[in-house]
Amino acid sequence: EVQLVESGGGLVQPGGSLRLSCAASGFTFSSYWMHWVRQAPGKGLVWVSRIYSDGSSTNYADSVKGRFTISRDNAKNTLYLQMNSLRAEDTAVYYCARGSSVREDYWGQGTLVTVSS
Amino acid sequence: QSALTQPASVSGSPGQSITISCTGTSSDVGGYNYVSWYQQHPGKAPKLVIYDVSNRPSGISNRFSGSKSGNTASLTISGLQAEDETDYYCSSYTSSSTLVFGGGTKLTVL
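^ inputs. structure came back:
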């Protein structure tokens, strides 16, 4: 069974940093693209970033480019999202998702990030 | 990276069919056959119901179908059931090597 478990969310002040993790199990992690998608409270889904199976290629939404960094450790079956210079508008539930280059097929339950003073 | 355009809400009676549209541009929906649809119940993670415009993942009911014409993709749910009442999102690959979601559509089963 595919399982994705996010962690690392919490309350952070504007301008602060946070690193999210996503522990994967039940599939060959090193064979899949992985994505981060976020959802502000009561709002829709917004794609954030993706990373190739071996970590050699990454892409970002314009809204986070230069502030967020996606990475992965295939030996630990773990996906990461380093978030710097956080803003109030980054407040959201952050989902990690397994997929291909063009879609997500399995999603975790998400972790809430709140940016507030 | 503007969001794809979906109607905010649609409704239908049990047993009927409904269609949700998803409009983009030639740089996303119209340029690639990489449109996906997701179902999301409140407080739950999204679930993939259609990928590559019209393909259903294993385990998804054949009441769900997808299509595309030009810059607009569509999700059709036939034989509406009470359990279908929730939010639906479209997504497309883009020419910028990113993905983009629609704003979401709330389906009400009357």
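Chain B touches chain A through 27 residues (CB under 8 Å). The beta strands of chain B are 9-12, 18-23, 35-40, 47-50, 64-69, 72-77, 87-93, 99-101, 105-109.
thumbs up if we can close this ticket
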